[in-house]
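We include the entry.

. . .
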Amino acid sequence: MQDDTDTDEDFQFLQPIDLITKDVYELQKIIKEKKEKLRQDKPRGKDKDNNVHEREHGREPAREREKEKQLKEKEQDRDREREKIEKDKEREKNKDKEKPREDPMDVKANGDKDVVTHEENGKAADPEPMEVCTSSTSLPCEIPSSDVLVLDGHTSEVFACAWSPDGSLLASGSGDSTARIWTIGDGPCHSRMQNGPVNVMVLKHFKGRTNEKSKDVTTLEWNGEGNLLATGSYDGQARIWNRDGELVNTLIKHKGPIFSLKWNKKGDYLLSGSVDKTAIVWDVKSGEWKQQFEFHSAPTLDVDWRNNNSFATCSTDNMIYVCKVGESRPVKTFSGHQSEVNAIKWDPSGSLLASCSDDTTAKIWSVKQDACVHDFKEHAKEIYTIRWSPTGPGTSNPNQQLLLASASFDSTVKLWDVELGRLLHSLNGHRDPVYSVAFSPNSEYLATGSLDRCLNIWSVKEAKIIKTYSGNGGIFEVCWNKEGNKVAACFADNVVCVFDVRI
């Protein structure tokens, strides 16, 4: 039986012509030779496989090394930023020695990843005395935990958050390479908790199981209709997702991290600004880039649409450019800042542009003139971000005065009367750099978030804190929903919180 089987297998070494032309001895000789040749080849084939594996394994560590290198560079950047903040704090402490300050032991100086201070023994340091809720008519202003919905799920700091225009969905972007879309709904926060966990969709910015740090989600924004969410990532890619968390388009052209993303009002263009020094206008329908603007000589930090076709960009090169789709040169250049320009924002009417810088000034510009209209110099340290009040012509509050809020590393938020060009109020309630500020839709309140882990809600008119909440991590961004009855804040301790704000 075995012989028959062997014979059947042996036939595979023979050509049909051999069977006809050769006798049995010759056939056996051919089979023997071919078997011998196969035996000699086999080890070589195996070695070949081994070589391929070795080459693959050789390439893998190189890839890992490259990833580690990128990660190290990024961590060094973050460490430098943290050192800068700590040095500033130290200078401030030495300058104000007569003032009672927190125990220096409470400040982390070990280069730990967590940028948050006042965390020794997991307990916040005693705040400096501040004038909070002093009027006899105000209620206790600490937001009770029953009015707070804590959204757990991210595994790293949460850098960005944004409500959808209809106010039912909250998007968050994190250092864990994901964005999330949380369904919040209308009711009060305590009723949500009784109804079980919040529905969430996870938008992964990586393929596979590993969390790649190069894919941190740095920025996100909903379009005007609220049916598409754009996210910008450290990997240089912008992505467009639908409300169900499905990836609609990946926009690939930038060669460095994206720090700013904005939809135009019409929703047909998306604008992105990157560390690669450029800004790109993307055609949303086709998913292709329409125009790349290469005017800056250093990283682009912020971009903002003026109208559907024109926008401004700012950079670490101290410059601001106003650009127009279709034009190959800037239509306007604003030069005047002495250090990097961190943020720019057009006022609701699109006639004035506000900017803020590491040179500690905020400036107001008009396309009708070259020099700035106003130069606000009252901050003592870098200004991180700015926001216009939703007031004046073309807004839902047309008869209220236009204000600008600026948030600084000097721990203050300042409110500016833009018409008169003067400081209206200095809001002194935080103890560390203020990273985020947002006006309520009716412009009567201002939410601020700081590295001191506190969310404060201020009465704009009275310049007083009316509600406050202390979390377990620094706050990177705050935002109001459309109705103005909820505020979201994202924290360095991986959570997003939603607060009921019934004022």
User: Anything to note?
Assistant: The first strand starts at residue 148 and ends at 151. Helices lie at 2-10, 16-21, 24-95, 189-194. Residues 42-71, 95-139 have pLDDT under 50 and may be disordered.
